[in-house]
Amino acid sequence: MTNEHAASGHEPKQRHRTEGPQKHIVAFVLSLALTVIAFAAVSAGEINTTFTYIILVGMAILQVFVQMAFWMHLKDRGHLFPIIAILGGVFVVFLLVIMAVYWLWW
Amino acid sequence: MDWLTTVDHKKIGILYLLAGGLFFIVGGLEAILIRIQLIKPQNNFVGADTFNELITMHGTTMIFLAAMPLLFALMNAVVPLQIGARDVAFPFLNSLGFWTFFFGGVMLNVSWFTGHVPDAGWTSYVPLAGPTYSSNHGIDYYVIGLQIAGIGTLLGGINFMATIINMRAPGMTFMRMPMFTWTIFVTSVLIVFAFPALTVGLVALMFDRLFAANFFEPGNGGNTVLWEHIFWVFGHPEVYILILPAFGVISEVVSTFARKRLFGYSSMVFATFLIAFLGFMVWAHHMFTTGLGPTANALFSIATMLIAVPTGVKIFNWLFTLWGGSIRFTAASLFAIGFIPTFVMGGVTGVMLASAPADFQYHDTYFVVAHFHYVIVGGLIMGIFAGLHYWWPKMFGRMLNETLGKLTFWTFIIGFHMTFFVQHFLGLLGMPRRVWTYLPGQGFDTLNLISTIGAFLMGVGTICFLINVVATSVKPRNAADDPWEDGRSLEWSIPSPPPEYNFKQTPLVRGYDAWWKEKMEGNREMTPAEPVGPIHMPSPSILPLVMSIGLFIAGFGFMYHRMYLIVIGLVITFGCMFLRSVIDDHGFHIEPEEQERGVHA
Amino acid sequence: MSAHEQAEGYLPHEPEKATLEGRNKILGFWIFLGAETVLFGTLFSAFIALRHNVMDGPTPAHLFELPMVFAATMILLTSSLTSVFAVQAMHRHKVGQMIGWLIVTVVLGLGFLGLEITEFNNYANEGHRFSTSAFSSSFYTLVGFHGGHVAFGVLWISLLIAQIFKKGLTTVTAPKIYVSAIYWHFIDVVWVFIFTVVYLMGKVG
Predict the structure, then answer these.
(1) Which residue, of B122, B546, C4, C44, is most buried by count of CB atoms within 10 Å of its CB?
(2) Does A18 touch chain C (CB under 8 A)?
(3) A71 and A99 in a common domain
(4) pLDDT of B313 above 90
(5) What ranges do the domains of chain C cover?
(6) This prediction's pTM
(7) Any C CB within 8 A of A44 CB
(8) How many Å apart are CA B118 and CA B101, to the nearest integer?
(9) Residues of C with CB under 8 A from a CB of B
(10) Inter-chain touch B200–C42, beta carbons under 8 Å
């Protein structure tokens, strides 16, 4: 709907360094490890409840960071607005979760 | 037929204006009926049940089906022009947003014809709105109608965010955008983050009512206050969604008709963000009396009062813009100038309500009713009237009649203050909200009478406006590009109404108040940023209309437990989504020869 | 305009970002994900508020079987990785590989759904039904919405595979693949919170 042309150049046959799968496989392994730790913490059954919760939430947040940074490209350039979009949503969710948790435990 | 398939933001803006205007009249009639019932004590113009239906539908219609669409009308008509774009980022979705809103609104109002009308207030609190105490289909119309309409709003929010981020003309950095565009941007952010909470709340209520879920059933472990939390997490940002665009309109109108640059642009932008941010943190001020405890109440009180600060910044900036300006009183500027003290009055009663201990007295009285009508009607509606008078020539190529416009202003504002100023005192005297009648001898009688007369006067004002619209529509379509002569932003640099493609050549923006800047340097047109060439336009489509009808049918299916309707409706909707994905729409081109002849929208 | 370039057989390096429409679609989709974050967040907070109210139904500690949840998690996690590989193949213009990875993603997604349906069926037999309690309603709504998103994703990606067969990889179809991959990653991210908050915290008590 405008006269703009494709932003990416018309350079034919240019060698672009496409990223390899390595970083993503690392992200996979990390996610796997974080998942296993979380499941293990619960299955072990001997850890104090509050501490278990902290481990669970911690592992989840870390895993989400890993997946969003690598698999969803948030660490790459040109992703400022996507980051803002997600952070905005997270902010509202944070308020909601505090409401729910406070409600139960106050 | 063109209107049913259009994806052009200018036409969609007019569709929103028509539909929003229509629902505004419906909501206004509901208001008149309410006020007639309350004109004297122990009146029985309508029964108690009908009264509950009237107040529910008045609130729901005015907020969701009148105010928001009228704002979307201005958004659609103006924002792409102000940023130098040829359309929004997703024209198809824009159309879909309109039609889902429209059918959601139709669904809500169909309820009047079935005799099962929503009657639990626009906030639909449980357990009253739950399956036990509202066993007829009234609340289902509310739940499903709003759900469908809400989809449209969310799509619109996403659309405008993407448009403003990605489609500004070259040279238009964020800090060179007009203030109206800024407020629409922040409003879109609010829509994107607030509406999903409403979606979940409505889903939960729907599941409780139709599928025997237990979200809000205390007997089965549910919690009724949960509804209030979820609703108000949406509901409070919603009122900022309503008012921020009006703030944007005021900024535009005040600076144009004072012939002066907006004072404190950066602080205006910052204040807008701050209002939006804080707006998410205050929802429980609607729940002070539900037993949250003193700590929570204190925190929410303080957060609420804080919002007065950025709002005050805006008020002062408008006043400083007017000060020393060369002020011209037109209908548009009268509405904008009338807005300022009226909104301030609403704002200060808001700060009064923000004090939790005081609120224990004000809660559920007419004091609250007075407050929110001051900010919504005295604020938002006046802002919409200002925007309509201001941008009417750009949208329709004709100037609204100034005399009728001024008459609209005076009748409306006098009627408004008559109606709602006295309601503060009614509240302080102890008259509760949402009561269908009251006993004599409590000091309520005269005030209610005055309030009702004021309501009629507002009706007169609205009729004046409608007469103006009709009278103007028969005049020739010969408005100038820059009919106010003092236009500052890009929309005034193109014909009124604009050609289908808006800008023959995308303009190069060299500063804030881009058009004013060019004019002050003696240029008669904007500097183009590209050569003349074929312009690529999106194709029209009937799919948005059909998809919305599908949702409408499915909604009835859910409500009346008719599986075949659900299936038919969803098949239609998903079928259209499938077609949209599979059939490539490459649009069409408008060649330079056609552009010379002026392709009109 | 964008499809014309394909006539020359030339495809840009990141075809999904090569056109304004493509970039708009990607940005618009991220904004939509911001909204989806709030949507799931609200469902989560309702669940958190109601999770202890089991009434006469079985408790989460009693109901949930971690091995099955772990298996489902592994399946979804792997499918997210395969969708990354699909997008990388797309960037290398290896259409055949891309389709292959997308098919694997869809199959894994179906596997996840199969496990979930079995799981829900088991629960129903154990007296944990939608209407049993506030806990059960919010459980099924939250986990069910996620499952619904997985199902939609499976259908969507399958449809896209068919489109690629028919139209090939172009600057019009590339954004669709990219966006569907972002969607698929997002629902894996949501699942991380589901298995943590619903299942693991449910087991702990």
Answers:
(1) C44
(2) yes
(3) no
(4) yes
(5) 15-46+64-204
(6) 0.94
(7) no
(8) 18
(9) 1, 3, 20, 23-24, 27-28, 31-32, 34-36, 38-39, 42-43, 46, 49-50, 53-55, 130-138, 141, 159, 163, 167, 172, 176
(10) yes
- Joined tokens for residue C13: 């390096």
Say if residues C109 and C79 touch (Cβ distance below 8 Å). Answer: yes
- Examine the domain organization and report whether A39 and A68 are in the same domain: yes
pLDDT attached to residue A10: 46
Mean pLDDT for B366-376 is: 97
Provide CB contacts within 8 A for A60, sequence distance 6+: A34, A38, C192, C193, C196, C197
Residue of B nearest to C42 (CA): B197
Which CATH code fits C15-46+64-204?
1.20.120.80
B130: β partners: none
B536 DSSP assignment: E
Distance between CA atoms of B288 and B302, rounded to whole angstroms?
13
For residue C191, name the pLDDT band (cuts at 50, 70, 90).
very high
Residues of C in contact with B222 (CB under 8 A): 50, 53, 134, 137
| Nearest-angstrom CA–CA distance, B345 and B147 | 33
A8–chain C nearest CA distance, Å = 5
Predicted confidence band at B5 (pLDDT cuts at 50, 70, 90)? very high
Segment C161-179, tens digit of pLDDT:
999 999 899 988 999 999 9
Looking at the fold, whether A49 and A81 belong to one and the same domain comes out as no
Same domain, A60 and A83: no
Chain A residues lying within 8 Å of C192, measured CB to CB: 35, 60, 63-64, 67
Count up the domains in chain A and report the number.
2
In B, which residues are within 8 Å of A91 by CB distance? 193, 280
Q: Nearest CA to B477 among B494, B464, B495, B492?
A: B495
- Residue A14 touches partner C, C-beta closer than 8 Å: yes
Residue C1: per-residue pLDDT: 41
CA dist C204 → A42, A52, B480, C74, C129 (Å): 6, 8, 71, 21, 21
Top pLDDT among A14 and C135 is at C135
Residues C76-92, mean pLDDT to the nearest whole number: 94
Tokens for C155?
A: 């259908």
Residue C4 has pLDDT above 70, yes or no: no
Pick from C138, C140, C132, C139: which is nearest to C55 by CA? C132
- Whether A91 and A57 map to the same domain: the answer is no
Is the CB of residue A64 less than 8 Å away from at least one CB of chain C?
yes
DSSP class of C199: I
With CA atoms as reference, report the closest residue to B65 among B117, B22, B5, B34: B22
The answer to whether the CB atoms of A1 and B193 lie below 8 A apart is no
Kindly state whether residue A47 falls inside one of the protein's structural domains. Answer: yes
Residues B535, A92: C-beta atoms closer than 8 Å: no
Q: Chain B: nearest CA to C53, how far in angstroms? A: 5
- CB contacts, 8 Å: C72 with chain A: none
Chain A contacts of B533, Cβ < 8 Å? 3
Residue range B217-238, pLDDT digits in tens: 999 999 999 999 999 999 999 9
B419: its two tokens: 């109606």
The verdict on whether omega for the bond into residue B127 sits within 30 degrees of 0, i.e. cis, is yes
- Same domain? For A56 and A102 the reply is no
A99 and A69 in one domain?
no
For chain A, the distance separating the N- and C-terminal CA atoms, rounded to the nearest angstrom, is: 55
- Give the residue among B9, B59, A67, B17 at the shortest CA–CA distance from C182: A67
Q: Structural domain of residue A43, as residue ranges? A: 21-75
Structure tokens at B585: 């729409």
Q: How far is CA B380 from CA B163, B240, B338, B452, C36, in A?
A: 24, 10, 12, 21, 29
ipTM above 0.90, yes or no: yes
Tokens 């911690």 belong to residue: A58
